[in-house]
Amino acid sequence: MKRAIISDIHSNLEALQAVLADIRSQGIDEVYCLGDIVGYGPNPRECVDLVMNCPVCLLGNHDQGALFDPEGFNVGAERAIFWTREQLEEVNSSSPAAFKRWDFLGERPRVHKEGPILYVHGSIRNPLNEYVFPEDIYQQGKMEKIFSLIEWISFQGHTHVPGVFTEDLEFFSPEELENQEFRLDENRKLMVNVGSVGQPRDGDRRACYVIQEDGIIRFRRVEYPAEITREKILAIPELDNRLGDRLLEGR
Question: Can you say whether residue 36 is alpha, beta or left, with left for phi > 0 and alpha for psi between -120 and 50 degrees?
């Protein structure tokens, strides 16, 4: 099995299309999505439509915010999610596509488990909202509690910062790995952050996702026309200009 794992698309259609094209070029068998399909970006409807065929697609905190009420969001993120909700509702429309998207988002699980491998948006301890940042390797108590819940591997997103956490409190960014690959050991627990398709925050503006194969995790970076996405955001008054500018910075 050769599987692509994507996360944190955030309504960035150009990034998602580029990643899906790259996935096709890699001979991937299936695509799993770890949530946050929507939020921040200008194309929520189109992005939801593109991930509907994923055999596994989890609920992210922004997806939940669009469905219900955003909790703990800053002002820019909150404005964006209310605008996103309007786009998904297609106000004054009885479009079957709108109902289909709402049903799809409303049915998303928070956790998917396959044997000793777990897929979540945030963390195994709090699948929707907990952030696990690279600097948390210095928070021994936090990391030990999370790893105590992991059987072998937890794939997650949420922070938009890709890399591998090991049980002995090390963090490896993709750039620190030879060929951006990490070899698996059945006796070594891991947390793998797959990075973000639509809003990278590790200083690399390219979209990021992970390929999961037998014995190997491989990070992939994909160029996409971020300037186009930025211009779309700048043209929408409800979306903060910073949401577009940061795409060019990878921050």
Answer: left
pLDDT of residue 225: 98
Single-letter amino acid, residue 204: D
The Cα–Cα gap between 207 and 50 comes to 16
CB atoms within 10 A of CB 137: 16
* Three-state SS at 6: strand
pLDDT at residue 8, rounded to an integer: 98
DSSP assignment, residue 244? H
* Mean pLDDT score across all residues of the chain: 95
| Residue 93 confidence class, pLDDT cut points 50, 70, 90 | low
User: In this predicted structure, which of 64-78, 160-174, 213-227 has the lowest mean pLDDT?
Assistant: 64-78
Question: How far apart are the C-alpha atoms of 236 and 176, rounded to whole Å?
Answer: 38
Is the pLDDT confidence value at 115 over 70?
yes
Show the tokens assigned to 135.
């600097």
- Name the region of 46 (left: φ>0; alpha: ψ -120 to 50; beta: rest): alpha
Model pTM score: 0.95
CA distance 223 to 250: 12
Coil vs helix vs strand at 19: helix
Q: In the chain, helix, strand, coil percent, each to 5?
A: 35, 20, 45
Q: What is the pLDDT of residue 95?
A: 80
Single out the residue of 211, 129, 219, 237 nearest to residue 173, CA to CA: 219
What are 75's two structure tokens? 């002002």
DSSP state of 69: -
Q: Residue type for 71, please?
A: E
